[in-house]
Design a protein that fits this description.
CATH architecture: Beta Barrel
Number of domains: 1
Shape: globular
Number of helices: 1
Oligomer: single chain
Radius of gyration: 28 Å
Number of strands: 30
Strand content: over 45%
Largest sheet: 22 strands, antiparallel, barrel
CATH topology: Maltoporin, Chain A
Length: 586
């Protein structure tokens, strides 16, 4: 009996662990089976991760004449413990020599436990302690996400003339339970405030995305691409606030609410490509229409409110690439594009959550998308080195802003105004010696923003530098080592300046079992130097200095193994067309 040469089973298994102050694991199994017209695939991943974050704030408050009014020192210590299960499976089936059908199922389930504690000291203008505070949050967040994808491909000829369609449906359920407690005493130990309360916050999201794409090559290296996409999103968010009195929960409608957000985006695009002997050009045009409704249902204390959003925008793009020599060693590319960055759904949620005694966070239902316009010129010599100059302009720039009410900071996202970035970047890939491969990237940028926060001007400007290096060293046929680093200069992060910081990573890898397996050990952030040190911008009669230390220095170990036949897996669609919408759930 003749063997079916198209049949084959293969896969790979990987298992990794890391340890800083706490441990984490990541394990995955990939399976693929091909037989005649059918391709089956599956991936299952299980991970656990525990990490800490320590924040220290030095907040100062001022009188109207800029004299010091008070100082608050605040320490936030947080330990996050997460567990995740992810399953991705499906099949591709060849219906005929010209058509195929596919189905994907993605199931994701996760839990995150949040152990948060804070301590505070409040000082008057003379530096004498007046109040001491402490508190905790024991939060539990659970998430379940189920998504399906149906896809169809019709190849109208062998030259790339094709029609494809996708249907995606996703259900996302998330809920958090956050018991919290605050204790405030004076400098004599007298209790001024002792309260316990609880947030119960269920969130449900339904996403449906429909997409169709058409590709038509013509003679003389001309190609037309066109497509349509429609997405339908429904978000239902509740925030139920309870005070704890004598061990019993009492519902408080004044701090509770119910917010619903529905969104429909329809888009159509066309893209035309043409290639000549040395010149290649591309022009694209995308039209998007948004229709959205938000309803804050309110209750007997909180009034109802609603908003509607409707807009239609064009997003053009163009690329021209020219080969400077007949050997195709040097290429010059001119690129222009306009883009939109829509807010995450949670950023539109108006609920206010208390983080600690002096800090609250909320969303912003009035938040609008951020628009980017980019013009870029790039020179590249083979795969060895490149230089790039770009100008980026931003409209309706989104910043995480802080407003001061008394001695409380209120954090939420806002459109603060406009901004620009002039970026000069370069890259070099080299082999200084036979056993050393080095990849290096450097970016120098001029950053500026022009806007207002709480009726105060916010106009930061600075030069920023980024440098990244990765180096691989071949020690033998089966042993290799790598070392890399990343440096970030002073930068703007929202309504703050952050000081320079860097990190260094290193590792060693050994190939085993006829190079089908490998073992790797390494260290991330060797010097534990990736620490944020931020100073505030444009706060009304207030300022702060903040340090942030995370569990970034970790020892890592990983094992990978490939098994099964070496038969080539049939090509299948990676991801799904609702990845943008899924990203906005975070």
């Amino acid at each position: 009996m003749r063997k079916n040469r198209d049949a084959g089973f293969n896969g790979n298994f990987s298992s990794g662990a890391s340890h800083g102050r706490y441990a984490g694991t990541n394990n995955s199994l990939n399976l693929n089976y091909n037989r005649k017209k059918l391709n089956l695939f599956a991936n299952i991943g299980v991970s656990t991760f525990k990490e800490y974050t320590d924040d220290h704030y030095d907040r100062k408050f001022f009188n109207s004449d800029n004299s010091l009014s008070s100082t608050i020192l605040l320490d936030n210590d947080q330990v996050l413990n997460s567990k995740n299960l992810n399953l991705f499976t499906g099949f591709d089936y060849t219906l005929s020599p010209k058509s195929s059908f596919g189905f994907n199922l993605n199931y994701n389930k996760g839990r995150r436990d949040n152990d948060f504690m804070f301590n505070s000291q409040a000082y008057n203008a003379e530096g004498s302690a007046e109040e001491y505070g402490s508190g905790f949050t024991d939060g539990v967040e659970k998430r379940t996400r189920i998504g399906v994808n149906f896809n169809y491909l019709l190849q109208l000829n062998k030259d790339g003339h094709e029609l494809s369609a996708d249907i995606n449906v996703l259900r996302h359920d998330q809920g958090s339970d956050r018991p919290q407690g605050n204790l405030l005493t004076d400098n004599q130990g007298q209790v001024l405030e002792d309260e316990m309360f609880q947030y119960i916050v269920p969130t449900n999201s339904d996403i449906t995305v429909l997409k169709a794409d058409y590709v038509r090559p013509f003679k003389n290296k001309l190609k037309l691409e066109a497509g349509v996409k429609s997405s339908f999103i429904k978000n239902d968010n509740e925030s139920n606030f309870y005070t704890i009195e004598n061990g019993s929960r009492v519902f408080d409608p004044a701090f509770s609410n119910h917010f619903k957000y529905d969104e429909n985006i329809n888009a159509v695009y066309v893209n035309l490509q043409k290639a000549w002997k040395r010149l290649q050009g591309q022009f694209g045009l995308r039209l998007e229409n948004l229709e959205a409704n938000g309803d804050q249902l309110g209750n007997e204390v909180v009034p109802k409110s609603a908003f509607q959003k409707s807009n239609t925008r064009l997003f053009p793009s163009a690329t021209f690439s020219y080969k400077l020599d007949t050997m195709n060693k040097n290429t010059l590319t001119l690129f222009a594009v306009s883009r939109i960055s829509r807010p995450n759904y949670g950023q539109l949620n108006p609920f206010v959550f208390e983080k600690d005694e002096f800090t609250s966070t909320s969303g912003n239902p009035d938040l609008n998308p951020q628009y980017q316009y980019r013009l870029e010129l790039k020179f590249q010599h083979k795969q060895l080195y490149w230089f790039q100059l770009s100008y980026n302009r931003f409209e309706q720039l989104v910043f995480g802003v802080t407003k001061v009410q008394g001695e409380r900071y209120i954090n939420r996202p806002e459109n603060i105004g406009t901004g620009y970035m002039i970026l000069l970047s370069s890259g070099l890939n080299s082999n200084p010696v036979k056993w050393w491969n080095s990849n290096n990237t450097m970016r120098i940028a001029r950053l500026a923003a022009n806007g207002t926060v709480d009726n105060l001007p916010l106009t930061p400007k600075l030069f920023a530098l980024r440098f990244e290096t990765w180096n691989a060293f071949t020690i033998s046929k089966t042993i290799s080592a790598e070392a890399g680093g990343y440096f970030a200069s002073k930068d703007i992060i929202g309504q703050a300046y952050t000081k320079p910081m860097f990190r260094v990573n290193a590792g060693v890898q050994k190939k085993i079992w006829s190079e089908k397996g490998s073992v790797r050990v390494g260290i991330d952030d060797i010097f534990h130097s990736w620490q944020y040190r931020n100073s505030s911008l444009a706060l009304r009669q207030a300022s702060y200095y903040m340090t942030n230390v995370m569990d970034t220095r970790r020892v890592t170990a990983a094992f990978t193994y490939r098994f099964g036949s070496e038969a080539k897996s049939k090509k299948r669609k990676q991801g799904s067309v609702n990845d943008d919408e899924k990203g906005r759930l975070e």
